[in-house]
Structure formats: structure tokens, C-alpha cells
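Researcher: Here's the sequence for the chain we discussed earlier.
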Amino acid sequence: MNTGPEPTPAPSSATAETRQARFAQGLETLNGINSDAVPLVLDSLADVSPELAHQIVAWGFGEIYRRPALPPRDRQLLTLGILTALGGCEPQLEVHLNTALNVGLTPEEIVEALLHSAGYAGFPRALNATFVAKKVFAERGLLPVDQK
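Model: Thanks. This is the structure I predict for it:
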């Protein structure tokens, strides 16, 4: 008689400690590049999917973002390109534009990256991303952007 899948055993204390350590590393990383993003991630998901918030912090920033092969500046440039190409990611793009500025990208470099993305992702997506950048730059007193 098949009674269905075996129940998942409760996590061991070692697993719980590893889980918490990854989360702590992710928080440290995220706080280091954009402390304003922490409440955006944690609070916005607390009542609907705290596990998603945990995974974003623990895996996204505790595991992936901490890898040493790419510095934060390069990771953010890549992230801006990907979010622009995906389209429909404007809230996340806003967070990552602020983070990109925090880790040393200049408004000129960001605008150039968004312009470059038009050839690969299309003008509508590049425009949408540029308008989000304009909002972030305005909030930070970085307009007008000097372009050559």
C-alpha cells in the first residue's frame, strides 16, 4: 500500500546553524552594499513569503554575491544589464541602480550601460530602465548626467 512520500525530517541543529550562518553572511553582504535594501527585502515579504526573503538574502547574497571572482561593481553592472533585458523589473532595477552607485559605478557609466542594452534588449526596455535611472539620479541629486 502506497502511503505517499515520506515526511521531510525536521532540520538538524547543524542544518539550522548553517542556514542561519548563510543568512547572516547574506545580511552582512547586503548591508555592505545597500543597507536600504534590507528592509525592502525582509519587510515587504514578511507577511507573504518570509522564506523567499530568506533565500534572497542567504542564497543570493550569502552564497552568490559573495563569490570572489567578480567585484561588487562588476556584479552590479551585470545585474543592471540583465534586469534591463528582462523588462518588467523596474522595482528591482531601482534597488540595483542605488546599489550600483553605492559600489562605485558613476551615473555616466550606468547611462552608457543602459544605452548599450538598447541594441540587445530593445529601445522600450532601455527607455524604461533609463527612466528608472533618472528617478534614482534625481533622488540622489545626480542630474544632469554628463554624456560625451
